[in-house]
Amino acid sequence: QVQLVESGGGLVQPGGSLRLSCEVSGRIVSTDLMAWYRQAPGKEREAVATTTSRGGTNYADSVKGRFTISRDNAKNTVYLQMNSLKPEDTAVYYCHIRGVRILEGGPFGNFEVWGQGTLVTVSS
Asked: Strand 118-122 to strand 10-12: parallel, antiparallel, or no bridges (unpaired)?
């Protein structure tokens, strides 16, 4: 069974920084796509940043230059460093990971998992 643990949310003042982390476990072979999404009150969930196993990254225009996504493949962990935070960054942030794992009985199989969400509040 795949498990995913998010951490790092909280309350921060405008202009401050936070670092989110997300670790996946459960007989993981590879993590092909690791991403962060967010959902603000009354809005749809949106992609914030993604990173592939080849190291490629992509960011929403609203966070470019302020957020950095990174990954530690040895730890099956993805991070989101958020700097220069704005009130409009307030949202629940979700980790999303797709990859390959060893199934019961031995064969490989794909997996896709979402985190439980961590609240980021930017307010003075």
From this structure: parallel
pLDDT tens string 64-110: 999 999 999 999 999 999 999 999 999 999 999 999 999 888 799 99
The Cα 35–Cα 59 span in angstroms is 10
Residue 37 and residue 47 in contact, taking contact as beta carbons nearer than 8 Å: yes
Cα 20 to Cα 17, 100, 105, 108, distances in angstroms: 10, 23, 34, 29
Instruction: State the number of CA atoms in the 13 A half-sphere of 34 facing the CB.
Output: 26
User: What is the three-state SS of the chain?
Assistant: CCEEEEECCEEECCCCCEEEEEEEECCEEEEEEEEEEEECCCCCCEEEEEEECCCCEEECHHHCCCEEEEEEHHHCEEEEEECCCCHHHCEEEEEEEEEEEECCCCCEEEEEEECCCEEEEECC
Looking only at the bridges linking them, the beta strands covering 118-122 and 57-59 are unpaired
